[in-house]
Amino acid sequence: MKALQYRTIGSAPVLVDVPTPVPGPGQVLLRVTAAGVCHSDQFVMDLPEDQYIYGLPLTLGHEGAGTVAALGEGVRGLEIGESVLVYGPWGCGRCYRCSRGEENYCEHAAAEGISPPGLGAPGAMAEYLLIDDSRHLVPLGDLDPVASVPLTDAGLTPYHAIKRSLPQLIPGSVAVVIGVGGLGHVAVQILRAISATTVIALDTAGDKVELAQAVGAHHGFVTGGEAAEMTALEEEIRALTGGRGVTAVFDFVGIQATTDLASRLVAVAGEVVIVGVGPGTVNIGFFSTPWESSARAPYWGSRPELMEVLELARSGMIHVETERFSLDDAPHAYERLRAGTIRGRAVIVPDHDQHGEDAS
Fold first, then answer.
1. What CATH homologous superfamily does 156-296 map to?
2. pTM, to two decimals
3. Burial class (CB in 10 A: 0-12, 13-18, 19+), 250
4. pLDDT digit string, tens, across residues 162-183
């Protein structure tokens, strides 16, 4: 089968031929119908050799959708041909967090060498994907896999981050979303769907701010100007809050410039939520941030939350803007991702008619 792999530190991913996996006891083989392209992939491929921990070669793709192609011994509750999404943050399945469906916070995954697909285990950018356990599959039903596959991360991650802040996001509150690309434009929709807050979108790219406003942001601003321009912008945002400051800032970039901006915008008893995979930090202290303000850095989301995200999609309350690429053209999708020219989320769709093979 064909697979997109990261094979050499510092090099671009390449399309290669690898053996089609065979499911063992308890495992499930999927015929991949869609795989999402994510900035986290780029983060992984940009790591220097002394920090890289994901193994080589690495088949990319931690957002996956497929149809059940083969079942390992003992698997029950799935049918051949059933359409499913992959829950990505795999855990041990036994600890307290996993028992709550919060495998994203598994207590033993690191010690036991359990990795998500595309982030250690072979990922979804291939014609077939091996799933370790059927509990990591969520029925897709009649939802389109290409439109839905980004929901496993670009939907689940902002949903998880926002859900914890819901008690704060009452009528009269203001939420700022910094970075309204792949995850951020979905965050805007989730905020509008499940809260009464006023949503302000910030990005350095005007087209992304326009997208955020098109999907529901009440206000949008282009950032990244000179110091005087940024000061004026911050004053304008504060004026929109009635002078109180922002109730919750969701930073989908995570560099120091954006976390510093979040710290300046946040209100007394407000929250800074760092979602973006970047090196930025927030300096919490008596004299550095408003009283009772807090900062947190959530990771991905739980299995029940993924089901909730799918219900939002079924109801039409959220959707992901997508650009579609073939598996052969997947390297170009990553070039576009690095250049910042993807509108929303890139999705890789294997051409099984041309390249597929019988998994049976």
1. NAD(P)-binding Rossmann-like Domain (3.40.50.720)
2. 0.94
3. buried
4. 999 999 999 999 999 999 999 9
